[in-house]
Amino acid sequence: MLVPSKIQTMFAAFYVCLVFWCLDSAAGAELAPPRNVTMVTLNTQYTLCWDWDHTGNVTFTTQHIARYKLNSKKKSPIWSTVCKDILDRSCDLTLLNLYYLGIHVLRVRASVNGRHSDWVQKEFSPDKDAALGPPTNVILTPAGSDLEVTIFDPLSSNNSSMKELIPTLAYHIMYWERSVDSQASQTHQTLTSSINIVILPNLKPWTWYCVIVQSRYDYYNKGSNFTSPHCMQTEGATPWWEIFLYFLGSLVTCFLVMFPSVYSSFWCYKTLKATLFPSHQLPMHFKEFFGTSPGSDVPCLLTPESESELLCDNVTVRLEPAILEVHDLPPENLPAPLLGLKPGSSAQHSRHDSSSSGDSGVYSTGGRSNSQQPNTSQPIAGVIDCWNGLDAEQVKMQEMALVLNSRPKIPADEGIVDMCV
Length: 421
Fold this sequence. Notes:
The protein has helices at residues 2-28, 67-70, 126-129, 240-276, 284-290, 304-309, 381-386, 392-405, and strands spanning 35-42, 45-51, 58-66, 80-86, 90-92, 104-112, 115-116, 120-124, 137-143, 146-152, 170-177, 189-193, 197-200, 208-217, 222-223, 230-233, 323-325, 416-418. Strands 3, 4, 6, 7 and 8 form a five-stranded antiparallel β-sheet that branches. Strands 11, 12, 14, 15 and 16 form a five-stranded antiparallel β-sheet that branches. It starts with a helix and ends with a strand. Strand 6 and strand 7 (115-116) form a beta hairpin. It has 421 residues and is an alpha+beta fold. It contains eight helices and 18 strands.
């Protein structure tokens, strides 16, 4: 009985040891690290990718450091964390703006429930390892019977030309004649150039050609993918019928464009002319009234232009009294009563009342120069009595003659108006 009991005790102890060993092995087992760590790049866009076979709630952490810092003996290297505890199996490194000509070290590890896998490191040099992209765009332009190819540089992540990072960037151009039969063999011609504008020579006129372009970096023998084909027809001498059609089309276009404007201008001209210069004129009696007819005595209406010309200074006009010259009547014209007067005597009739103002200002220039002013104190009643048988008008005229003869004479050069009575 003792033997079996010892055997059972030994088996129990072995079983316990086996359990503890298994538990210790499971506790000390390391987490599997990521595998197939690669870089996916294009110009200056960089993405670190990896694989992991296990399933579960696993996260990943990615760190970066320049390689020259790992070789520094002065201080321990400090890694910068780019992506921490992410569920994705890739990490974008574009925002780091990695130095294009430098060498960088990247590492990634997996984490599950607080346990971490080993770091997996990878060196990366953009100048050597980054893929080169094709040209951004290609434009074809006919240049006679040749084609002009304009190439736009590939761009970096900040939209700058890749020639700033790769000064020796060149372009590999491949072109061929496009055929109607797609299964026919095509002869490709190539051309390499470092400039952005290239002329494809020795092409046939009026023929379609297709062009594809590839970016090249010959120092590391890197080349991009070719662009999609761009096709263009070459030109040649223009036939006469095409020139005639172009000319005819230009004339028709010019006529269609110019006719509405010319017609509208002519219509405006006719409307203005009919408004400002009507064909229906004013009647003749209106023209005579307004003084528009030649020789009209009625003054013309003043226009704004004539009103501006009628500006003048004030003028004062003084009228000089008209002087009448009265000559003596011959004796045969005098009435009979006056013939009996003595030669040296004269008769005068003076009017002093205000109603006889019409005779004022009349002076006599006839008679002798040494005639004296008659004596007004002598009565003229006898003279008036001898005129009773005469006509009243003749008596009045004789009275005026006697009065004017008694006035002094005025020289003949002082504005004298002659009048015979």
